[in-house]
Amino acid sequence: MATSISPTSQSSPAALPPSVFTLPQTAQLEALYTIIRDKTTSRGDFLFYSDRIIRLLVEEGLNHLPVLPKTVETPTGATYEGVGFEGKICGVSILRAGEAMEAGLREVCRSVRIGKILIQRDEETALPKLFYSKLPEDIASRYVLLLDPMLATGGSAMKAVEVLKEQGVSEDRIIFINLIAAPEGLKAFCGKFPALRVITGWIDKGLNEKAYIIPGLGDFGERRYCE
C-alpha cells in the first residue's frame, strides 16, 4: 500500500485570509505540481501538466460565480428545476504568463470574452506600471476571472485590479486565479482587496531575498514559451 505523505509546502488553511480558496489537496494534485516544479521536466510535459492544473483552477473559479434558479424541459417532457449563471463573465490575463491560462478558460467557457493587461516595473519608481490594456467595453457589467499563474509580492496583481476598478468593475465581481502563491503576496493582496476572491492551486513557503517564490517552479513564462 502506498504511503500517504502530507504536502510539505502548503500553508495551513486556517491561516489563510477568508477570501482565499485552494484546490483540494489530493495526492494527484501534488503529483502534478511535482512534475511542473522539476527543473528537468521537458517543455512539452510542462505545458501538458500545467494545463491540467489550470483547467482545475478555472473549474473551481466557476464554482464561485452566483447562480439563479432556472427551469428547463428535458427530452422526456419532464421539467427540471436547476440553476443558471447569473451574469456574463470574461477572462482578463496579466501578460505575458497569464495568457497561458486563456486556453483553459476557453475550454470550459464557450465563446468567452478575453481582455489583456500588461504591467511592468517602472525603472524610476520601481513600482508596477500599466503599459497596455484591452478590455471588453461592457466589462463593468461582467464577472471577471483575472488570470496570472504566479503571485509573489502581489504588485502586478494589485495594479491589475486597480485597472479593472477604474473601468467600473466592482471588487466583489473579480475572482483572481493563479497556480502558486506566496503567503506574503496573499496577505498584501487580500488586505488591499478584501471583497475579492482568490483561487489558488498551491501556497508555497514564501519569498527569498530576491522576491522569488520558494520552492516555486522558476519563471513560468520562460518555461512555457521558451525551448
From TrEMBL:
This is PRTase-like protein. It comes from Leucogyrophana mollusca. The lineage of its organism: Eukaryota, Fungi, Dikarya, Basidiomycota, Agaricomycotina.
